[in-house]
Amino acid sequence: MSMKKMKNMKNIQGKNNKYDVLENIFNDEREYKKSIVHDNLISKDKKYIYEDELNIEENDSIVINGKIYSDMGTLEIHVFNYDEDIFNIYDDVIIDNYPLCIETIHQSYFKEKNIVAVGTLDCSIQLWDLYNIDMLEPLYYLGDNEMKKMKKNKKRKLKTNNNIHYEKKNIKNIPEDEEPNNISKQKIKGHTDCITSLNSSKILPSLLVSGSKDSTVKLWDLNNLNNLHTFSFHQKKINNLSFHSKDKNLLFSTSSDKTLKIYDIRQNQVALDIHLSNIPEATIWNTHEENIILSSYIDGYINKIDIKYINTSSNKPQNNYLVNFKAFENSCTSLLSMNYKNLTLAGSEDGVIKAYDFHNLLNEQPHCVYSKNLKKNLFYMKDNEDWPNVVFLGCDKLYDWDVFECEEIKKYFNL
């Protein structure tokens, strides 16, 4: 996501309303490069943020992360520009609960606003406007009828529709279809426990899916701010959710019940029910192989699954694994399929990151091209759409890592 903001130009005049270049050149430099905050976010070397770096330019990226403190939660807005070597905190806001998951929204009822959805500990999904992040509360609470509200200072009022639960087997009213008239409706609220996962569709950007500790998966229409359907296929907490990047109707979910379920969002039934060997930590679609899913576990194992060759009659998870190996001594908390072909990153909770080529197997394990120890806990890794070579690392702080700086990775994958 990018935001635009025009700089304010400042004219400096002398006593005679004439601008003296020689007299003011050093004053101009101090004014333009006035240090306002000392920052150690990127490296241990001293870094200063200047006023001109806090303006959001057309080519800048916005990076959002949530932080949990002992008594409060916050959202941090960062400005990032790889070409200009800028990575600064632009703003932050205290929210009324702990943020557990975050997803950027590209299409919603709020039209041109830059919206981010935040799943919290108190079972609400908050929709925040990044242009007005300093507001004391979000624009909207998604999925809780008692909490639903719009900002009082907004000119346009929302006509709130009751959430709809579809009992019919076939679900046909995704945004591009007309709503059937004969579907029974009943008022329901959102999730009844904390929100553990959020994911928006890249093909139908108004669709959002949420998972919760209450073991349900909910499909939301953000154009109308209502619930299209609730899937109740799992028995325990939802751990991961993801739409397919090419098939608009395909979705997977994983749970602490040790299952991976794949289904068509138009059908109220599971297409594939895959048993897993342990509780999954991270699960992703492979960027370059549309039928491949990679999953990691609390025991440090990683496996590769091809959904075209699933034996649904087998109760042995290993029978459905193309690759299954122990990557870490501790839990593997994050997986990332990079935009560069065959490059996959895996990270453990104790801060070890490994770069793998899953197409080059040695002793039934993918070739490990590179290993890096952050020497701090790692919670999450995220790539960057504007600069694919940059990976953001969620640790005690938010860090950026340029994989181009690693000669082993750059040489092996011909980057």
Automatic annotation (TrEMBL):
The keyword Phosphoprotein applies. The keyword Phosphoprotein applies. Keywords: Phosphoprotein, Repeat, WD repeat. It holds the Pfam family WD40. WD repeats lie at residues 188-230, 231-273. PROSITE patterns: WD_REPEATS_1 (PS00678), WD_REPEATS_2 (PS50082), WD_REPEATS_REGION (PS50294). Transmembrane segments: none annotated. Gene3D superfamilies: YVTN repeat-like/Quinoprotein amine dehydrogenase. One of its GO terms (cellular component) is nucleus. It comes from the Eukaryota. GO terms for biological process: rRNA processing. PANTHER family: PERIODIC TRYPTOPHAN PROTEIN 1 (PTHR14091), PERIODIC TRYPTOPHAN PROTEIN 1 HOMOLOG (PTHR14091:SF0). This is Uncharacterized protein. It comes from Plasmodium falciparum (isolate NF54). The lineage of its organism: Eukaryota, Sar, Alveolata, Apicomplexa, Aconoidasida.
